[in-house]
Specification:
six-stranded mixed β-sheet
C-alpha cells in the first residue's frame, strides 16, 4: 500500500482492473466518528504499558509469557493484536501508536474474499462484527468500461470464485468502524501518543523500543507495523525514514479522490473502472447511499502545489475527462470541493532481497511491502502478514526460537506479497500509458466504422476476450493461497499468470514505454541496466514500424 489507503495477484495488468473498489483518504467532508469510537479513544489513552520482565528465562510460560511490542495501530497492527489476544498461547502485547487520538480518516477499506476468510479463521465473533458493517461488492456486477464510449469492455465474476470456495464475498468497510471493532478486544493494551522512533537489541535478543518522548519500552519481539515511512525499518536497515535512501519511491502518479452522498449510482454494480488514453477513473458504491470515485493521473511529484486549479478540482477534472462517459461527469458535477482530496502515490519495490526481519524484529504491511492501491490488496496483505506472524510466534516454546520463527514468517509471505506488490508497482504504468480506447473496425448499425486504429487501441481490443479467463486465474491465486502455505496448484496458477503477464508487458512495451515493462518486473536487477537499455531501444524501433503500418491502414486516432 502506498501513502494512501488501499484501493480496488501474479504479474500482470488485468489484476489491477479486477482489483476492485478502493479506499483512498478523502477530504474533510466525511462524517465524524461515532461516539463509541470516541469512548475507545478515551480508554486507550490511559492504557498502561507492559514490558517483558527483566531477566526472564528463555522458556515461554504462563508465568513468563512472550511479550510482543507492535509499533503502529493501523489495520495490520490491530489485527495482529487481535490474533494474539484471541490465541490460547502464553503471550502479552503492547500496541504503540504514534497518534494521540484516532480520528476519522480515509474512505472505506476493501476487504477481498481472502482477507474476509482470514478474519473468519481468527474468530467467528470478530468476523461477524466486521460483516455487520460491510457493504458487499463482490456479489454484484463489477468490471471495466470503455471510458469514451461508455460501453462495457469486460465484466468479471467475483461472486462464483468465492462461492465455490465457501468464502465471504469481497466487501468494503468504513475504516474508522473497522478500527473501532479491532480495538474492542485490545484497547487495554493500546497506547496512544507513543510512536516508536528507534530500537536496540541486547545479547539475548530482547528488544528495547525508544519512543518519541524518550521513554523506553522493553519486549521480547518488536513488530514494525508503522507504515510506509517506518522508523522500525529505518533502524533495521540503518537508512533514513524519508528521502532518497529510504527505499520509498514516488510512483509518478497522483490521485484525486472524492467521497459523497450520491443518488445517481447504479445499485447493480459494485464498481466500474473507466479506461481510456493516458488516465482512468473509478466509481464504487461504499454503502449507505455513499459513493467514492478516484482519478489516476501521471504527474510530477507535488503537482498539487505546482499545478494551478483556479476553478477548483472538480472543474479541473471535468476538463481532463472531457469527452468521457457522462457517468463520470455526473458524479464530478455534484462533488463539492471539500469532498475531494489529491494525494501523490508512493510505494516500495518488492523486498525480495531486502530484510524483513533482523534478530527479534520483523516488519509488517506497508513497512515492508508498501504497494500502489490499484489492486485493493494493501490492507488485505497486511492482514495476511498479521495472521502468519501470530501463527509463527505463538507456536514457539522458547525465546531462543523467535528469530527462526520470524524468518519462517518472511519465507511464507515473501513470494505472495512480492507478486501482488510487484504488479501494483507497474500496473498503473500499463493502464495509464498502455491502455487506450479499444479500436473499432467493421460494420456497426449498417455502416462501416474505423475508430482508434492505432497500436494501443488494437492491443486493448485484442485483450478483451482473454481477460475473463485471466480473471478466473487471478481470483484462484488470491483466494486459494490465503493461508500462505505451499501449494503445487498455486505454483501452476502462478506460472500461468506470469506467462500471460509477460505477454501483455511485451505488447504494451511499445506504447507504455520499455522502462515501464522491463523495470516493472525487475529486469534491471536481473539483466543489468545496460542490457535493459539495449532491449528497450530495440522495442522502440519496432514501435515506429508497427505504428507506420497501422497509419497506412486506417490512420491514427480515427
Amino acid at each position: 500500500m502506498c501513502d494512501t489507503a488501499a484501493l480496488p495477484s501474479g504479474i500482470m495488468l488485468t489484476m489491477l482492473l479486477a482489483g476492485g473498489a478502493g479506499a483512498l483518504r478523502v477530504g474533510t467532508g466525511a462524517t465524524a466518528l461515532k461516539p463509541r469510537a470516541s469512548f475507545i479513544t478515551a480508554v486507550v489513552a490511559e492504557a498502561p504499558v507492559q514490558s517483558a520482565p527483566k531477566g526472564a528465562s528463555q522458556a515461554i510460560t504462563a508465568n513468563e509469557p512472550l511479550h510482543v511490542l507492535i509499533a503502529g495501530g493501523g489495520v495490520g497492527g490491530l489485527v495482529l493484536a487481535n490474533c494474539l489476544q484471541l490465541s490460547k498461547a502464553p503471550v502479552t502485547y503492547t500496541v504503540l501508536e504514534r497518534t494521540k487520538e484516532f480520528k476519522k480518516f480515509g474512505g472505506p477499506i476493501q476487504l477481498a474474499s481472502n482477507a474476509m476468510q482470514a478474519l473468519r479463521s481468527i474468530d467467528e465473533e470478530l468476523y461477524a462484527e466486521i460483516e455487520e458493517q460491510a457493504t458487499w461488492t463482490g456479489n454484484r456486477t463489477n468490471g471495466i468500461k470503455d471510458g469514451i464510449r461508455n460501453e462495457w469492455y469486460a465484466k468479471f465474476d467475483l461472486k462464483s470464485p468465492a462461492e465455490v470456495r465457501s468464502m465471504p464475498f469481497t466487501c468494503v468497510v468504513e475504516r474508522p468502524e473497522l478500527q473501532e471493532i479491532l480495538m474492542r478486544r485490545t484497547s487495554h493494551n493500546l497506547r496512544l501518543g507513543a510512536g516508536v522512533e528507534s530500537y536496540t537489541q541486547d545479547e539475548s535478543g530482547r528488544v528495547t523500543a525508544r519512543l518519541a518522548n524518550g521513554e523506553e519500552v522493553r519486549g521480547d519481539v518488536l513488530i514494525g507495523a508503522d507504515g510506509i515511512w517506518s522508523d522500525v525499518r529505518a533502524t533495521m536497515t540503518n537508512t533514513p525514514t524519508r528521502g532518497d535512501e529510504s527505499g520509498v519511491t514516488y510512483s509518478g502518479y497522483t490521485v484525486f479522490a472524492g467521497e459523497l452522498n450520491y443518488d445517481g449510482g447504479d445499485p447493480e454494480c459494485g464498481y466500474k473502472v473507466y479506461i481510456g488514453p493516458q488516465q482512468y477513473f473509478v466509481i464504487t458504491d461504499i454503502g449507505r447511499g455513499r459513493y467514492q470515485w478516484y482519478a489516476f493521473l501521471a504527474r510530477p511529484m507535488d503537482s498539487e502545489s505546482s499545478e494551478e486549479k483556479p476553478e477548483g478540482s472538480s472543474l479541473y477534472l471535468q476538463g481532463l475527462f472531457e469527452g468521457w462517459s457522462h457517468e463520470i461527469h455526473d458524479i464530478l458535477k455534484v462533488t463539492q470541493e471539500h469532498e475531494i482530496e489529491q494525494r501523490d502515490l508512493y510505494d516500495r519495490p518488492p523486498s525480495v532481497l531486502k530484510p524483513w526481519t533482523k534478530g527479534n524484529v520483523a516488519l509488517l504491511g506497508d513497512a515492508v511491502h508498501a504497494m500502489m492501491p490499484n489492486l485493493g490488496q494493501g490492507g488485505c496483505q497486511a492482514l495476511e502478514d498479521a495472521l502468519v506472524l501470530s501463527e509463527e510466534m505463538t507456536a514457539v516454546s522458547s525465546r531462543t526460537q523467535l528469530e527462526g520463527a520470524l524468518r519462517t514468517y518472511r519465507n511464507r509471505r515473501l513470494t505472495r506479497s512480492a507478486a501482488v506488490q510487484g504488479l501494483s508497482r507497474f500496473a498503473s504504468d500499463i493502464i495509464i500509458r498502455g491502455f487506450d480506447t479499444p479500436c473499432k473496425l467493421g460494420f456497426y448499425d449498417g455502416r462501416f466504422v474505423c475508430e482508434n486504429l492505432n497500436y494501443a487501441g488494437v492491443v486493448t481490443r485484442m485483450l478483451q476476450p482473454i481477460l475473463p479467463i485471466f480473471f478466473t486465474m487471478q481470483f484462484a491465486f488470491l483466494y486459494d493461497d490465503w493461508r500462505n502455505k505451499f501449494s503445487l496448484e498455486n505454483v501452476k496458477i502462478g506460472f500461468g499468470i506470469l506467462a500471460f503477464g509477460l505477454l501483455v508487458l511485451a505488447a504494451f512495451a511499445l506504447t507504455a514505454g520499455t522502462e515501464v515493462a522491463y523495470l516493472g518486473v525487475g529486469a534491471e536487477a536481473l539483466l543489468g541496466a545496460e542490457s535493459v537499455e539495449v532491449v528497450g531501444a530495440w522495442f522502440a524501433e519496432q514501435s515506429t514500424v508497427v505504428q507506420e503500418i497501422l497509419n497506412s491502414l486506417g490512420g491514427t486516432g480515427l
